[in-house]
Amino acid sequence: MSTLVAIAYPDESTAKQAVATLGNLQKQQLIQLDDVVIARHDGDKIKLEQGVGLAGVGALGGAVWGGLIGLLFLAPVVGMAIGAASGALAGKLSDYGVDDKFAKEVATSLPAGGAAVFLLVRQATTDRVLEEMKHYGGKVLQTNLSAETEAKLQAALSGN
User: Fold this and answer.
1) Which of 8, 16, 59, 147 would be a feasible disulfide site paired with 88, CB 3.0-4.6 Å?
2) In a domain, 77, yes or no
3) Whole-angstrom Cα distance, residue 31 to residue 133?
C-alpha cells in the first residue's frame, strides 16, 4: 500500500526541483514512487502536471501483447502496431495514482503562484530521503500518515 503525501511550495520552480531530487533518490533506490503530480495555482485555475506517462507505458505493453498475438496470425508487425495504438489509448484514458479531482481540490488552498507536489510513496529510506528534501522546505497539506508521523515529517521539512 502506498502513502499519500501532499507538500506545498512557494512556487512551481521549487516544486519541480523537489521532484527532480525525488527522481534522483528513486534512481538510488532510496524511494519508490507510484505517482507524482505537481499542481500549480495559476490565477483562477489549478493546473496539474502528471509525473507518470501512462500512454507510453500502455503503448509498450500493447505492442508486446499485439506482437505475440500477431505471431499467432502470422502478422506480428501489424499486431504490434494495433497493440501499441490500443495500449496508448488505454493508458491515456486510465487514471492511475493520485486522483486529479482530489489534487485540484487540495491545491485550491495554495496562494496564487504556489505549487504542491502530490506523492504516492510505496517505500522509502525515510532518514536519507528527508535529509535531501529538507533543503526545499515546504508545508505538509495532506497525508494518510498518523498525526505523530505527519508532525515529524513537517518538522523535518521545516529544518527542526
Assistant:
1) 59
2) yes
3) 12
